[in-house]
Design brief:
By secondary structure, this protein is mainly beta. 5% of the residues lie in helices and 50% in strands. The strands form eight sheets. Strands 33, 34, 35, 36, 37, 38, 39, 40, 41 and 42 form a ten-stranded antiparallel beta sheet that branches. Strands 29-11-12-13-14-43 form a six-stranded mixed beta sheet. It is globular, with a radius of gyration of 27 Å.
Length: 612
């Protein structure tokens, strides 16, 4: 963004020419690529010499997100909005307490879905007199933006609920965009999942990111809790990007949150956050932000760190994060406030690196703007070196992304991710992927299984126990239709070149979503030619079991042996509800078949939204 003009002499600090005034950016001014314009205009530094600063402002009443701010020493000390005015009006800041200090003024616009989604300015002048009553209190702005966050979610709930493709047993926040799951943990009888929540938008790139929070006793039914981590706008933070939870050596939890600044030339930092109550409802940033030693390695000196993932190896505490590659750090103190760089886990950069131990092997996962990648091997905590034995893809489509993992009270490693691909204009995007129980096979490759707790949602069973021979034919299953189902189908292949299921099938059979094996590959919903899902059938049993979960606009499919687990977002026509089995190019046998209608999970949003 362009800077303000140079400061002229006299009381006038800045004048922003325009007709009738200058907007920084707004959602009604798309950029050439169709995205909403947003950003900041920042003034040169100046010394405060007068008692007041008077500003002509117009635009919405969106604390911090569309605002004029006075910065001193990297902090916001005064901030005002356009007050829902379409014409310029005077705003006054009392700056007598700051005389002699060096300051700058910023105009910030990060609004998209709101009324008057912009900040506009005319004259900005220093004066010994006030044009109007002084405003700009930071504490009031903090309270306003937190309330506006909840209001924005609440405002979009009716659209989200009305969407027929919104899932009923995948967890979703009440509205707006859910992105990366963060900092999951088992604590005090609950599975806790935090997540990036774009509270002010339902689709689009990440901005004004808060951390949402949900908990569940059974991985099926969820409570949405109040927003756990808010941007510290007054400290220059625009968004709270991803991170994860560690237990320090005193057994206390700490979340490592990525601080994303307003000013693009300012480096991101990792800021710890700790709970202030026993229920983990309220979280606050800690005094030791940022931790010592978590800094970019090499050149250039300023880069965008993010996605910290702490882990333990014996009594030692480590952390990996996203930089120009994936560096590893070791904690030097019990409170995890001082860290030492120990080398590199992965020479390539990627989002959401995870590193943890399962079944005696170390698992490295990353999301390189492509399907989640894994490496499984050995880690030496003394040298901090990781030696992979195998590698591949956790999923073969980006419908499952931003993995993170934790261990529960049963000793299970639970793998989380976010489903991606939902369309805009529906009041929500993003859902928590079905929780996967992760183990490691004897071949040093992952095995993933749906959490067995999901079985409590089963209703109205349909079963076939007599084998059915399928020879170059499709068989529509009588008495079974739906868009919220669980299906377990066991096939034995004879000489068929392709076999499996057709779900969300139209009555005339011209449309369906395949879940099939064909010529050594498994396809779920659509082909993935860049990342084919290869699957060799056991030559002795010649059997494959498909387990399928239909949940409105989300389709999950896995194999009974855990070698494949795929998630897809889809928009099959609402009338396409048939289920069929088929074989092509020869003969396959449907050995057994079970299916259930799935009841909605109980998801309670009242602690975030208030009683409805």
């Amino acid at each position: 963004m362009a800077n303000f003009p140079e400061r002229p002499s006299g009381p006038l600090l800045f004048f922003l020419p325009g007709d009738p005034h200058t907007r920084v950016a707004s959602s009604d001014r798309p950029t050439p690529d169709g995205k909403s314009a947003e950003g900041s205009l920042c003034s040169p530094d100046f010394v405060i010499e007068r008692d007041f600063i008077n500003l002509q402002l117009a635009g919405g009443d969106h604390a911090y997100r569309a605002s004029a701010t006075l910065w001193i020493g990297g902090r916001v000390v005064r901030t005002s909005t356009g007050g829902n005015r379409t014409e310029l009006g005077w705003v006054t800041w009392d700056v007598r307490d700051f005389k002699g200090l060096t300051a700058s003024i910023g105009l910030h616009d990060y609004c998209r879905e709101d009324r008057l989604p912009y900040i506009a300015a005319g004259r900005i002048e220093a004066s010994d007199g006030a044009k109007t009553d002084a405003t700009g209190d930071v504490a009031s702005a903090n309270a306003a933006v937190r309330q506006q966050a909840v209001d924005a979610i609440r405002r979009n709930v009716p659209r989200a609920v009305a969407d027929p493709y919104r899932p009923i047993y995948h967890y979703t926040p009440p509205a707006q965009r859910m992105n990366d799951p963060n900092g999951p943990a088992w604590f005090n009888g609950y599975h806790h999942v935090f997540y990036q929540h774009m509270v002010f938008i339902e689709h689009g790139v990440a901005t004004n990111v808060h951390w949402g929070h949900a908990r569940s006793r059974d991985l099926v039914n969820w409570e949405t809790l109040p927003l756990a981590v808010h941007p510290e706008y007054e400290l220059g933070e625009l968004s709270c990007f991803s991170g994860n939870l560690a237990w320090d050596k005193n057994g206390e939890p700490v979340q490592f949150v990525t601080m994303v600044p307003f000013k693009k030339e300012t480096a991101r930092q990792i800021w710890p956050s700790r709970p202030v109550d026993a229920e983990w409802i309220r979280w606050e940033r800690t005094a030791e932000k940022p931790p010592h030693g978590l800094v970019p390695q090499g050149e250039p000196a300023v880069r965008h760190l993010k996605d910290a993932f702490p882990f333990s190896a014996g009594n030692r505490r480590f952390l990996v994060l996203t930089d120009k590659n994936i560096p590893i750090y070791e904690a030097l103190d019990d409170q995890l406030t001082t860290w030492q760089y120990r080398g590199t886990i992965d020479p390539e950069s990627a989002e959401c690196p995870n590193f943890f131990e399962v079944d005696g092997r170390w698992v490295y996962l990353s999301s390189p703007h492509e399907p989640v990648r894994y490496q499984i091997g050995d880690f030496d905590p003394v040298t901090a070196k990781f030696v992979p034995r195998t590698e591949g893809r956790i999923s073969h489509d980006s419908g499952f992304y931003a993995s993170t993992a934790y261990r529960d009270d049963q000793g299970r490693t639970i793998l989380n991710g976010v489903t991606r691909g939902q369309r805009s204009g529906r009041g929500w995007t993003g859902a928590l992927a079905l929780p996967r129980i992760l183990t490691i096979g004897s071949d040093d490759r992952p095995r993933m299984f749906p959490a067995p707790e999901l079985e409590k949602l089963r209703r109205d069973a349909v079963r076939w126990t007599e084998p059915v021979t399928l020879h170059n034919r499709v068989m529509v299953l009588p008495g079974l239709t739906g868009d919220a189902l669980e299906i377990i189908a066991r096939f034995r292949v004879n000489d068929a070149t392709s076999f499996g299921l057709q779900v969300r099938r139209s009555e005339d059979g011209t449309r369906f979503l395949p879940v099939k094996w064909a010529n050594g590959e498994i396809t779920v919903a659509r082909p993935t030619p860049k990342f084919p899902c290869r699957y060799e059938i056991d030559p002795e049993t010649r059997e494959v079991t498909f387990r399928v979960f239909l949940d409105k606009g989300i389709l999950d499919a896995c194999t009974g042996d855990g070698r494949v687990f795929e998630s897809r977002v889809h928009y099959a026509p609402l009338t396409d509800l048939q289920i069929a089995v088929f074989a092509e190019g020869g003969e396959a046998t449907l050995v057994s078949f079970e299916a259930w209608q799935m009841a909605p999970a109980a998801i309670d949003h009242s602690q975030l939204l208030g009683k409805q």
